[in-house]
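# step 3/5: fold
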Amino acid sequence: RGKSAQRLQLMAARLGAEAAAFEHCGPRLVALRAVLARQLQAALQPLSGEHLRAAVRRMREGSEASFLRLGAARAFQALRTELHDTLVEAERNTHELEQLLQVSLTPLNAEFGFHLVLAPRPVLAPFQREIDRVEAGYSRYLGVTQVWRLSGDAFAERFSRLLLSRLQVVFDGAAGEIEAWAQALGSQIDEQFRER
């Protein structure tokens, strides 16, 4: 009887300590998960479809504003610059998110014995190169010899739709890389939460 009572008391004390540790770390994990979701949404905002559609619309309006659409090449170059800047902004947001997470994970791992590991953030340089390839492929339609085709509304609409669909693939790829990176950490947080 004495040995069993002591074991039960030790188990109850250990269970109480674990419950107290969970009560202390649970809200911090939930808060980290919420911050990750909110910051991820902010990082993905520049890569959204509506942002891309607005940029292509501005390019089309810029080319239509010029005489015989001779300003189409200039508008297309402005679009390329804007898209590169958008990817740079997304990479900067991802870098800021990575720094925030590293600062948050270190104390959690040390204090509660977690094994949360942040994978290296995705590099968006391949998507920059893909935008350059898209520009090289579509710029042939903007030369002086092709400007007569672009002056027709039907061709200009088709050109814009094809360009938008190609750019959407590039931006969806970049957004997918960032989401997969964040979801990898999110699943680690969920797993640690379930273990506790």
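# step 4/5: annotate
Helices lie at 2-44, 49-64, 72-112, 125-138, 147-150, 153-195.
# step 5/5: archive (pending)
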